[in-house]
C-alpha cells in the first residue's frame, strides 16, 4: 500500500497540465482505478484483517484525493497566470453581458399613471384581491339579486368571499379608513370568469380613482381625466361623456376620447365612430358615501375605473389582450424603457 501511495503522489506531482492530471485521476479513481480496486479488495481479506486494512485504504483514498485537488488548483492558477501574461490579453475588454429583464408594459403605464396622479395630489391605496361580498357588491349599492351582479361573472370562494371583480371595493374601504377630503388611486389586479378572447381576460388590471370633498363637480372629473389621458397617450385629446349605468355612481358616464388612430376621422379601431370608449366614471352615489360613513348632504365625490390593459393597448397599438399574460418574451422585450 505504501508503494501505491509513493507512486501515486509522484504521478500527481509529475502532471504538468490539467489533461495529464485528469489521466492520473482516472487511473486512481476511475472504474478500474487502483485505489478503488484496493478499497474493494478489503472485503476479500480474512475477517480480522479487514478493519485495519479498511481504515488504511480509506486514509490513502482521502490523502490522494486531497493531493489531486491541490495539484488541480495549482495547475489552474498557472493557466490563469499564463493567460494574464499573454500579449493579446486586454483587461479593458467588457465581460460577457448579463441578461437583463424588462418591465411589463402594464407596469410601465401604471407607474406613469401613478406619477401623474401623485403630482395631482392623489395617494396610492391598496385593497385585498380576496374580497368580501359586502365590499365588492353591497357597499357599492349592488344588493343581492341586482342585475349588475350578473354582468360581473364572479369567481366565488368559500364563506362569502370572492376574487374581487373590480378595484371599486377599495372606495368604501378608503372612506372607512381615512377622513375626507380624499384623493386616491387604486391600481390593482381583478378577476372575472370570462371566456378569453382578443379583448377579454379572466385576470386584468384596473386603476380606480376616488375624490371626495365638498362641492366636487362633473367639471372636476372631466378636467382630471382629460389631463391624465393626454399625458399618458401623449397627445392633445378631446373627451366627451355619454350616460353610462353603474349602481355606485349617479349620474354615471362613459368617457370617450377622439380616436388616436385616425384622429377622429373614423377607422376600424373606433368602429368608424371617431371616438373610443376609454373609461367609466361618475359622481359617487349617496348610498356609497353612506356605506363609507359619510353624510351625502355634506360630501360629494367622483370616481372612475380605468382598465389598464385598454390604456396600454391604445398607447402602443396592441390589438390582442392575450399578449399581456401570454409570457412571450419576444412581445415583452419590445417595451424596454430601462
Ligand atoms: N368598477 C367598474 C367595473 O369594473 C368600473 C367603474 C365604473 C368604476 C364607474 C368606477 C365608476 O369608479 O365610477 O366595471
Describe this structure in words.
It is built from twelve helices and nine strands. It has about 350 residues and is α+β, with helices and mostly antiparallel strands. A hairpin with a 5-residue loop joins strand 6 (about 240-245) and strand 7. Strands 1-4-5-9-8-7-6 form a seven-stranded mixed sheet, with helices on both faces. Helix 1 (about 1-15) runs parallel beside helix 4 (about 50-85), helix 3 (about 35-40) runs antiparallel to helix 4 (about 50-85) and helix 5 crosses helix 11. About 40% of the residues lie in helices and about 20% in strands. The protein has two domains: about 1-85; about 105-335, BirA Bifunctional Protein, domain 2 (2-Layer Sandwich). The relative contact order is 0.11. The longest helix is centred in the first third of the chain and has 36 residues, at about 50-85. The structure holds 3,4-dihydroxyphenylalanine (DAH). 3,4-dihydroxyphenylalanine binds next to strand 7, strand 8 and strand 9. 3,4-dihydroxyphenylalanine binds near residues 246, 249, 280 and 305.
Record the SSE blueprint.
Layout: H1 2-14, H2 18-29, H3 34-41, H4 50-85, H5 105-119, E1 123-124, E2 130-132, H6 133-136, H7 147-150, E3 161-163, H8 169-177, E4 182-191, E5 203-213, H9 218-233, E6 239-243, E7 249-258, E8 275-284, H10 286-291, E9 300-307, H11 308-316, H12 329-332
Parallel strand pairs: 1-4
Antiparallel strand pairs: 2-3, 4-5, 5-9, 6-7, 7-8, 8-9
Helix pairs in contact: 1-4, 3-4, 5-11
Bound molecules: 3,4-dihydroxyphenylalanine.
Residues 166, 168, 208, 246, 249, 252, 280-282, 303-305 line the site of 3,4-dihydroxyphenylalanine.
